[in-house]
Amino acid sequence: MNSDAFGYMAAGAALGLGAGLTPGPLLTLVLTQTFSHGTKEGAKVAFTPLLTDGPILCASFLAMSWMKTHPSVMGIISIVGAFVVTMFGYECFKTRAIAIPEMNIKPRSIKKGLLANYMNPHVYIFWATVGAPTAVRASESGLLAPSLFLSGFFVSLIGAKITVAYLAGRFRALLSSRTYLIIMRVLGLALFTFALFLLRDGLRFLNVIN
């Protein structure tokens, strides 16, 4: 595995972990389903990004294929992506202990997970400004790099949410502990680092730096 491919896999993993552990609609639903119906139902919700993100990713790829021949557009998107990832990192640092919802709701975890993800604007913003542009840049090195980037992202994203569901089911108190907050701070630093790389790429596309 070459260093570029490994770097893209690491970037995808960092983004996936950040997205997987940052409190939001889908993570809240994972917790809700877990405490209402057990770990299995929470895990079902965790898998829904595999179903929702595919069409969004394909549309973003089509747009990126055109934008790839317009460096100035790619530069602007990369800079916007750096801002978006910085906000994700900031959310990690802003995170406080999770308030576990106490709700008695019926199952249909997959359906609810699909709805929660499709209605979450962060999903569209991420793929349009960060995910698809990064995968397109990775494709310049061949098929391995973008494949590893996407694999790293989805494995980490889904794995993080499944882990949360498991911990919620087995060790509820841990999710309110200092351990969770430390993990979020570390992920925030990783996202800030990736944002700097995106900013660098954007400035290079715009010929501001070499």
Task: Give the strand tally.
Answer: 0
Order of helices and strands: HHHHHHHHH
Instruction: State the low-pLDDT regions, or none.
Output: none
Rounded to the nearest angstrom, the radius of gyration is 17 Å
Question: Number of DSSP helices?
Answer: 9
Helix percent band: over 70%
Rough outline? globular
Number of domains: 1
Profile the largest sheet.
Answer: none
Question: What would the keywords be for this entry?
Answer:
single chain, mainly alpha, 210 residues
Question: How would you portray this structure in words?
Answer:
Keywords: Cell membrane, Membrane, Transmembrane, Transmembrane helix. This is Threonine/homoserine/homoserine lactone efflux protein. InterPro entries: LeuE-type. There is one protein chain. With about 210 residues, this protein is mainly α. It has one domain (about 5-205). It is about 80% helix and about 0% strand. The chain is built from 9 helices and no strands. It has helices spanning about 5-20, 25-35, 40-45, 50-65, 70-95, 110-120, 120-140, 145-170, 180-205. Helix 1 crosses helix 9 (about 180-205), helix 5 crosses helix 7 (about 120-140) and helix 5 runs antiparallel to helix 9. The model has no long low-confidence stretch (mean pLDDT about 80).
Layout of SSEs?
Elements lengths: L2 H19 L3 H13 L1 H8 L2 H19 L3 H24 L14 H10 L2 H19 L4 H27 L7 H28 L5
Protein name: Threonine/homoserine/homoserine lactone efflux protein
Pfam family, one: LysE
Keywords: Cell membrane, Membrane, Transmembrane, Transmembrane helix
